[in-house]
């Protein structure tokens, strides 16, 4: 990616993304995430393909990422060819450092992202260091993808779980539609003490397709901030790699 100099937050995202891209090796089937941080991963993989001859194939998690991957010359594949992926690299809206549980989906791509994450042997999360939270739900709503039919009923049931629920809309007031043509309910629960129970309760609502709690899925997080790059794994192993 070229052009304007990056602001500090974007620079941290890029640093985390470039670090994560080093995990991608020849012959891998790679899940490509969505969002401003994942964009840097896609750009770096494109660069490695062009400049280093890296040979990979990839499945993107959104129409936007697919368009970028095509521009970068990243060969795309399908779950028919690759039901299992070697690695997926994606961003996150919140990261709980002790568990690597996540909130994702601020960009609306949570359904495809979770399908790709579930198919991947490794799920590597890239972010700037501002995404750490003590408890999920502290910074962001939990997005819940619901089918359009009867969405008001699903929204009422989400509210009964304790959330303030707002259907996601565009500035002009029209409903935001996901790539799968569903609606998003942004659910503010406040700090979530027991995400596993909440996850099951949300799945129990008819009409819900998926939610943005990504629990026990990340195998590694790579974040960058003023103190350098930090790599966390679920077993609380951690390493700090020099100052930036
Ligand atoms: O639907 C969007 C995704 O879950 C993104 O990966 C997430 O919102 C993080 O995006 P960003 O890297 O732009 O903060």
UniProtKB/TrEMBL annotation:
Keywords: Isomerase. The keyword Isomerase applies. Substrate binds at residues 34-37, 90-93, 104-107, 131. Pathway: Carbohydrate degradation; pentose phosphate pathway; D-ribose 5-phosphate from D-ribulose 5-phosphate (non-oxidative stage): step 1/1. It catalyses: aldehydo-D-ribose 5-phosphate = D-ribulose 5-phosphate. One of its GO terms (molecular function) is ribose-5-phosphate isomerase activity. It is an enzyme of class 5 (isomerase). Coiled coil: none annotated. Gene3D superfamilies: 3.30.70.260, 3.40.50.1360. Its EC number is 5.3.1.6. The active site is at 113 (proton acceptor). GO terms for biological process: pentose-phosphate shunt, non-oxidative branch. Homodimer. Belongs to the ribose 5-phosphate isomerase family. Catalyzes the reversible conversion of ribose-5-phosphate to ribulose 5-phosphate. This is Ribose-5-phosphate isomerase A.
